[in-house]
Design goal:
The chain has 330 residues and is an alpha+beta fold. The protein is built from nine helices and twelve strands. It starts with a strand and ends with a strand. The protein has a twelve-stranded mixed sheet with strand order 1-2-3-4-5-12-6-11-10-9-8-7, sandwiched between helices. Strand 10 (258-266), helix 8 (275-289) and strand 11 form a beta-alpha-beta unit.
């Protein structure tokens, strides 16, 4: 048995094997996304990976030539440039077959991922693995990965849930390009207390972690990382925002239209007034007009205030994942 590069040494029907056997296809945690849609989205991701020089696909092949698992990872250009060291992300780690084989397959794929990163002078690997995939988590831990974050995903069903009316409708509006610098400046300080994977890793500079959010917000304002932004304004001062990415139905590949609530913040002096709920409702109204089906939101498992806001608005828990970090020199 051996680990191979699926780009240079593909096995017969390897993509079909992955889509048929991998348990954590895109949106596996949304019930009404059909299996056919999940498989189509996975095939799309694999095709993108095949075409990218910055992505690696590893497969574990049995002595009989059967594919028993795979790992997909890619180089993070933005993170590498921001933090100043070569960074990779493990996107998928899946195994199947007999229980006695699967741990050995997972261990081999993790070692293959580490070796791949090392060959590219990688210093850091981040992985986000569903809690349902405990075998993969144990394999990563056994190879030296360390948990830095638990991520809870909640989902709002626009067909079933009522969008909450705004308490402060006169303070909420759509984003305008002139808001950019105010949003960026706010983002430099509001995320420092978050128990996220950046601030919880002692190897990452707190200042660089704060500035990461500032760049994230700037790229959201440009339209690169967000499709709609709701803004709260009081006396001509921007005091809050929520960013959202709209994926739609992925050009017809998915039987549901899906969006994601990404970043959000309210200035400390304006908290407790219901502005964060109003901002989310504003974005949900925008989605409703576009006949979206679901909006999901991911936050740290110990970020209870954010989860309380989401559940009050009608979001429901859907999945839990762990984020793990690996340092080559640790």
């Amino acid at each position: 048995m051996t680990t191979v590069d699926l780009k240079t040494h593909p096995t017969a029907h390897w993509k079909q094997t992955i889509t048929n056997h991998y348990s954590f296809l895109p949106y596996w945690w949304i019930r009404r996304v059909r299996t056919e849609s999940r498989q189509a989205l996975m095939n799309r991701d694999l095709d993108i990976a095949l075409a990218s020089d910055e992505t690696r696909l590893l497969g574990y092949i049995s002595d009989e030539g059967e594919l028993l698992g795979f790992a997909q990872m890619h180089w993070l250009e933005w993170d590498t440039n921001h933090f100043g060291f070569e960074t990779w992300r493990l996107d998928h780690l899946g195994t199947w077959g007999s229980p006695s084989q699967r741990r050995a397959v997972a261990d081999a794929l993790v070692q293959g991922a580490i070796q791949t990163s090392r060959e590219q002078e990688g210093q850091h690997i981040t992985a986000r693995i569903p809690m349902n995939n405990l075998l993969a988590i144990h394999a990563l831990e056994g190879a030296g990965f360390r948990t830095v974050e638990a991520l809870t995903t909640l989902v709002f069903d626009l067909a079933k849930e009522r969008i909450s009316p705004k308490r402060n409708p006169d303070l909420i509006r759509d984003f305008e390009p002139a808001d950019t610098e105010a949003l960026v400046e706010m983002s430099r300080t509001v995320y420092t207390p978050l128990p996220d994977r950046f601030h919880m890793d002692p190897r990452l500079s707190p200042k660089a972690s704060d500035e990461l959010y500032a760049e994230w917000v700037r790229n959201s304002c440009s339209g690169q990382l967000a499709d709609h932004i709701a803004v709260a304004e009081s006396n001509e001062e921007v005091v809050g925002y929520i960013t959202m990415k709209y994926f739609g139905d992925y050009d017809g590949l998915c039987n549901r239209r899906i969006a994601q609530w990404l970043l959000g913040a309210v200035s400390p002096a304006f908290r407790g007034l219901g502005l964060i709920e109003d901002l989310v409702s504003h974005n949900l109204e925008w989605l409703k007009r576009r006949q979206a089906n679901y909006c999901f939101f991911g936050t740290q498992g110990n970020n209870i205030p954010a989860q309380n806001v989401a559940t009050r608005l009608g979001f429901r828990p859907a999945a839990l994942a762990l984020t793990l970090h690996y340092w080559a020199d640790d």
